[in-house]
């Protein structure tokens, strides 16, 4: 791998781990992606990480480690399940998460890692939000929902808490779904509203939010009455996850407005 402006994506083995991860992390944050060929969720997460690494232009490096080929490294990091992602800064792992997470959240996590790599640990702006985000990252959706709702009770327009709550809803909706099966079902049944909504959820989780928005805007054009309102509300909920500053949301909102009127 690699790109203009320095190295961005590398494959690491047990032989190169010391230099490519530990030594490199003394000067540049390294985000380690543990994956395997047989791991379906890895195929959703890894491409998003790679795209963000290239976008980062060398501010951090993505080190991909195949757990089957490098079991010793996986043992050293106590990797239980994959995908598992670690941030290594200054020769030490400083944070980690497992499973597939929405791109908006991934960006926030990476920003925090890069900040930490700058030698100045950013003070958490809102410890309540950190606690809620941690619960969401670890998959404790009930605790995350309680924490986000508590923030919203105290600060009703908190955009980060609203986005978090929307992410909890998304995680619940896709729990147990088969990503490829759901997308195929949506293709086979273009007018099955629930199939389209689930496919859009999976696209958002896979870092393909623009595709998800287009899918639902097209569905708004084809539906009417209660179905149409259901699709509209679902789409607005997906917008909440990305936040108001996301350029894809801005253009999708315009498309939605033209579809509605």
TrEMBL record:
Keywords: Disulfide bond, Electron transport, Redox-active center, Transport. GO terms for biological process: cell redox homeostasis; response to stress. Residues 1-115 form the Thioredoxin domain. Gene3D superfamilies: Glutaredoxin, Tetratricopeptide repeat domain. PROSITE patterns: THIOREDOXIN_1, THIOREDOXIN_2. Pfam families: Thioredoxin, TPR_20. GO terms for cellular component: cytosol. It comes from the Bacteria. The keyword NADP does not apply. GO terms for molecular function: protein-disulfide reductase activity. PANTHER family: GEO12009P1. Belongs to the thioredoxin family. This is Co-chaperone YbbN. It comes from Micromonospora globispora.
